[in-house]
Amino acid sequence: MTFRLTVTPVLSRNLAVRDDAIRADKARQEAGWPTARLVVVDDKGRTPVVWSDEPAAGFAAGDAGSWDVGQGATARLRTRPTTGSTPAEGAVLLGEYEGVAYWGMRGGPDLLAGDDPAEWADLRMAGAVLDPLGAGLFVTACALLNWHDTATYCPRDGSPMRVEFAGWHRVCEAHGHEEYPRTDPSMIVLVHDGGTGPDARVLLARQPVWPAGRFSVLAGFVEAGESLEACVLREVREEVGVEVRDVTYLGSQAWPFPRSLMVAFQAVADSTTPLRPAEGEIEEAMWVTRAELQEALAAGDWGGGGSKLLLPGKVSIARAMLESWAAA
């Protein structure tokens, strides 16, 4: 039995036009700057968000599990108007939508302008409930700004690098070498037994740093010289001691914490194989039936609903994978 993703991973949604031609057209950027909007992101990855439903108490303090995003609440970014006649130093072009250019910048709450610091949220908090335009802009802003924070000097000779192409590459001032935003590929895989019906099984695991009861699918970074499919085989074998087969691509999602791309797969394994969790990486691993997974999904996100099996929140592609398998 194989399955497909039945929902679009929430951080894969993007409505803004991101063409190279826009990034290269300085005249267009300057002409659109007075009516452009700024997505301001602080050094903790937060931006102001307007909620249609008020998050529960404690949410602003970072307690993402205190608000069940499965209840249909929605949110949008609170962008700022631009100032001046030309793009500000440090601004990066995120794209255009319906004739409006959107730029990202580092910054913080502007108390004089009436900003409320309690309204600022990061992608883990708000990504699942942002509208498609806001989700795409926020993901892009975080990814691009994170790269700029660590790309100020040329990796070849240590020379300073200047920003070009509306923030989409840097050029070494000494020798003209170009650097582009980094993206680190990571595979994430839902391993199942190939069965059908309520007794079919999926493999879940828990990292040592997670609270008891919190489980997800397996994931790992792609190594140099390694294909994505080979990474799936290696990581599952290393982390739980299981050999998998029938590796099939499912989808992908940006994960800018700080610069990953999660590439999702499914794979089949023998559920009678003894599990051998890797010491220091996997605290616990277990096979869960489809019926048990459906019950946990119905209970809500991380920490919600009183379920003994706590699953990833909707912002993660892992949640889309689990929901899709449970519904197959």
TrEMBL record:
<comment type="similarity">
    <text>Belongs to the Nudix hydrolase family. NudC subfamily.</text>
</comment>
<dbReference type="GO" id="GO:0019677">
    <property type="term" value="P:NAD+ catabolic process"/>
</dbReference>
<dbReference type="InterPro" id="IPR000086">
    <property type="entry name" value="NUDIX_hydrolase_dom"/>
</dbReference>
<protein>
    <recommendedName>
        <fullName>NAD(+) diphosphatase</fullName>
        <ecNumber>3.6.1.22</ecNumber>
    </recommendedName>
</protein>
<dbReference type="GO" id="GO:0006742">
    <property type="term" value="P:NADP+ catabolic process"/>
</dbReference>
<dbReference type="Pfam" id="PF00293">
    <property type="entry name" value="NUDIX"/>
</dbReference>
<dbReference type="GO" id="GO:0035529">
    <property type="term" value="F:NADH pyrophosphatase activity"/>
</dbReference>
<keyword id="KW-0479">Metal-binding</keyword>
<dbReference type="InterPro" id="IPR015375">
    <property type="entry name" value="NADH_PPase-like_N"/>
</dbReference>
<keyword id="KW-0520">NAD</keyword>
<dbReference type="Pfam" id="PF09296">
    <property type="entry name" value="NUDIX-like"/>
</dbReference>
<dbReference type="GO" id="GO:0005829">
    <property type="term" value="C:cytosol"/>
</dbReference>
<dbReference type="InterPro" id="IPR015376">
    <property type="entry name" value="Znr_NADH_PPase"/>
</dbReference>
<dbReference type="InterPro" id="IPR050241">
    <property type="entry name" value="NAD-cap_RNA_hydrolase_NudC"/>
</dbReference>
<dbReference type="InterPro" id="IPR015797">
    <property type="entry name" value="NUDIX_hydrolase-like_dom_sf"/>
</dbReference>
<dbReference type="InterPro" id="IPR020084">
    <property type="entry name" value="NUDIX_hydrolase_CS"/>
</dbReference>
<feature type="domain" description="Nudix hydrolase">
    <location>
        <begin position="181"/>
        <end position="310"/>
    </location>
</feature>
<dbReference type="GO" id="GO:0046872">
    <property type="term" value="F:metal ion binding"/>
</dbReference>
<dbReference type="InterPro" id="IPR049734">
    <property type="entry name" value="NudC-like_C"/>
</dbReference>
<keyword id="KW-0460">Magnesium</keyword>
<keyword id="KW-0378">Hydrolase</keyword>
<dbReference type="Pfam" id="PF09297">
    <property type="entry name" value="Zn_ribbon_NUD"/>
</dbReference>
